[in-house]
Write a structure and sequence with these properties.
The complex is a heterodimer of chains A (94) and B (452).
Chain A: H1 3-22, H2 29-40, H3 44-50, H4 58-90
Helix pairs in contact in A: 2-4, 3-4
Chain B: H1 3-22, H2 26-48, H3 57-76, H4 82-106, H5 112-137, H6 150-171, H7 174-192, H8 200-222, H9 225-248, H10 253-257, H11 263-269, H12 282-290, E1 294-299, H13 301-306, H14 309-321, E2 326-331, H15 341-348, E3 356-358, H16 359-362, E4 371-375, H17 384-387, E5 406-411, E6 431-435, H18 438-451
Parallel strand pairs in B: 1-2, 1-4, 2-3, 4-5, 5-6
The chains are: A mainly alpha (94), B alpha/beta (452).
Amino acid sequence: MDFWTLFTIFCLSCFIGYFVVWGVTPALHSPLMSVSNAISGIIIIGALITAGNSELSFSKILSLCAIFFASINIFGGFAISQRMLSLFKKKEKK
Amino acid sequence: MPWYLSLSSICSAIMFIMAIRGLASPKTARQGNILGIIGMIIAITATIALPQINDRLLPLAIMIIGGITGIKIAAKVQMTSLPQLIAVFNGFGGLSAVLISLAEIISGSDKRIDNSIGIIIGAIAFSGSMIAFGKLQGIITAKSIKFKAQHSLNLILSLLILSMTIIFIHSHSVNLFYWIAAITVILGILLVLPIGGADMPVIISILNSYSGWAAVGIGFSLNNTLLIIVGSIVGASGAILSYIMVKAMNRSLLNVIMGGLNNSDSAQKQSIEQKLAKTGNPQDAAFIMENANKIIIVPGYGMAVAQAQYALKEMADILQNRYHAEVKYAIHPVAGRMPGHMNVLLAEANVPYENVFAMEDINREFATADVAYVIGANDITNPIAKTDSSSPIYGMPVLDVEKAKTVFFVKRSLASGYSGVENPLFFADNTLMLYGDAKQVTEQIISALENS
């Protein structure tokens, strides 16, 4: 893909982000941070690609470390979000 | 790119957008989070299925180890320590960006501009978040750490990084790339050190934003649309949150980043009138609240520190059930150490979210309230922000607690808040100070309410 295609996608995504985030209720700003944190762990797919090489090299070791940290980010981020959001859920029974 | 990768990318991107969209209301938020998880599973599965991936076992094993670590941390952490946790996770996001950029450059990628962006933003997000964590956790002093020539040093380092990056782009020297990473890590530390405790909501949001932009940089370098889409949404989210926080303090982003209010100057100008603040005891407070029809509770960081949210909820329950009072909660946008911190703590104590209001929704109700119960908060109620144009907090939107018939301040002392500005409300005729630990004072009120 050429630069301008990627750049177009980038600009449009910024707009989507802008409008979606303004729609988030202030009461859920903490979960917003943890959810966005978790999904920013998507860079793990970059690490998976660079670690996909079968030969062991320094570059591969770095990528494996990246996978480790990014997956803490992803799993931990979604887990803490779920925990927080379940707190907001309980009250609906009342 | 195989077709299934394109298809899965767009699916994941939509799921992630829906995950954030779900946060528009507590009712849809959990569903949204599940969609986010599904989106992540799709993206990872499709990537692993790529034909050019030769090694799948080791990366997957490491992912599982990391995943279990993350889930364990998330399950153990106390809700009061949420800001620290977010800071650490953020830092890990930045660190992975750094590692991926390094790995790519070492393995001979020619996307030098994109990887430079990834590594610089990632490194700042990493080291900055670690310092933020240290400050929130109390390992490093939460106070603003300033020294001479700080700004010039930061400027020199920034220029150094910039020029090194330009040389790197033209030379492709891997060693230079290591140096860029190292110096940027130092810059990240220096940038966060001068940020004081109450400015943490802003800085955490900014760092959150950075980890998104770092993902964008890596997305460009790998030609990966999903990384670009997700990265920009995360970047926008952090940017908007920091804008909201900065606005709620009537400050500029630059002012926060430069190390905040100039406390020493403003504090000494305060009138040294020896006024007397009226001190009450929990029994007085209980008596007044028994006869109140409408009570508004204003929590601040002090409530979080004292873990007083459960006691607060118990007190509210007694007032509602036994004395038929209307109890509401008023949340200032920058109360606590991260955006939405107070809401989570109150939700943890089972306070119904229908009773918790944002500042602009409840501010006019103080005029009809009998009691404002300010617990562990100070600056966000200071009426000087509305009247005194020479005050450093002038123009900051505040909660109009002084309009309530009686104002209780649960505080350890008369000391001024983070801004260093004295709060004249302490000396107002309708104010009663309740000195002590937020939780203990509230518990004493509860027992007084129960015994009457």
